Amino acid sequence: MHSKEPFVRVVKRDETTFARRLMIRLIAILLSLIICAVFIFAITHTSPLSVYGSLISGAIGSSRRTWNTMRDTMILLAVALAITPAFKMRFWNIGAEGQILVGGIVTAAVMRYCGEKLPTFVLFLCMVLASMLAGMIWGLIPAVFKAKWNTNETLFTLMMNYIAIQLCAYYSIIWEAKKGSGTIGIINQKSQAGWLSTKFLPQIFGNFNYSINVIIVLLLTLTMFIYLSYSKHGYEIAVVGQSENTARYAGINVRKVILRTVALSGAICGFTGFLLVSGSSHTISTNTAGGRGFTAIVVSWLAKFNPFVMILISFFLVFMGNGATQIASEFQLNESASEVITGIILFFILGSEFFINYRLIFGGKEKEVKA
């Protein structure tokens, strides 16, 4: 009796060396840039090299652009760090956008109502604690349902995003700077009460006040690495993520770990909302999170939950995003073109993970099967 093998078989790799993983990812990036070049040439009839020169210029072409790229990198990194404990535990927190927004809303509220009434230290303390508490509560709501009734956390956290967006839209109208504008404008523009500043370090950062975010997020990165790698809580997160039954057998309180971890995840997301409002934009809107909650999932997953690797991936994605925006502007393309370019690059980077974990075997030959 004869049977025919499939033309292509997918086989899981036993182990992939660091050099091979790096090579596969570099090939994926190179292929994505080639495809982007074809796309760019097809719509602009311009040399791809000049376009990529624009890409680099758009991301780091001046000190202002460089610091913008660094600022955006740190915010994306902060969100990736926030969701990593939950994701490592296999709790799919898709609600980072909403947790960032509620953190930003309460930060804006404290700035508006207490900005000129409280001493600076007390004001910032209230802003930080309020933003973290708001994000924590927003994350704990689906976590409680998950821990007690095993609900689907993916859908639950996703729906919480839409509630947060509507809350933000509501307060944008309540606090609007000019009747009918739908925006609250810059908060405390004259007094700058509640604005994070690095003017005390002019020799390092100059006038880029939002660069304090860089210091804070890098410290957060180091802290998260230590927490996940060397603490008891980090060990319990890893065990629960591998198998809840194994965790229970080892005497770990799974419900407690779920609630504690998601509370931490939500608190850091809320704190990121504080960084966005106080340390960057000094306002709040429905676009404050800017989709970072979803992009951060890619960052965390590609980094294999390693906080230090997340720095590189966050920088690369922001670099390409900011550069692509410059391309769209310089060559008179709309914003969709830059999103297409970024999407192509992400597609190839994510696709490279398949070839890291699996290999293709081409066959199609007939073989004899014994009856």
Strand order of the largest sheet: 1-4
Sequence of secondary-structure elements: EEHHHHHHHHHHHHHHEE
Mean of residue pLDDT? 87
Terminal residue distance = 7 Å
DSSP summary: helix tally: 14
Give me the oligomer status. Answer: single chain
Compute the gyration radius: what is it?
23 Å
> Helix content range of the residues, please?
over 70%
Structure class: mainly alpha
Strand content: under 5%
Unreliable parts: none
Q: Largest sheet, described in full?
A: 2 strands, antiparallel
Count of distinct strands: 4
What form results from the Cα inertia axes? globular
Give a short synopsis of this structure.
The protein is mainly α.
Q: What's the arrangement of secondary structure elements?
A:
Elements: E1 2-4, E2 8-12, H1 18-44, H2 48-60, H3 63-88, H4 96-114, H5 120-149, H6 153-174, H7 202-205, H8 212-230, H9 232-242, H10 244-249, H11 254-281, H12 292-302, H13 307-330, H14 335-357, E3 358-362, E4 366-368
Antiparallel strand pairs: 1-4, 2-3
Helix pairs in contact: 1-2, 1-14, 2-3, 2-13, 3-8, 3-9, 3-11, 3-12, 3-13, 4-5, 4-6, 4-11, 5-6, 5-11, 8-9, 9-11, 12-13, 13-14
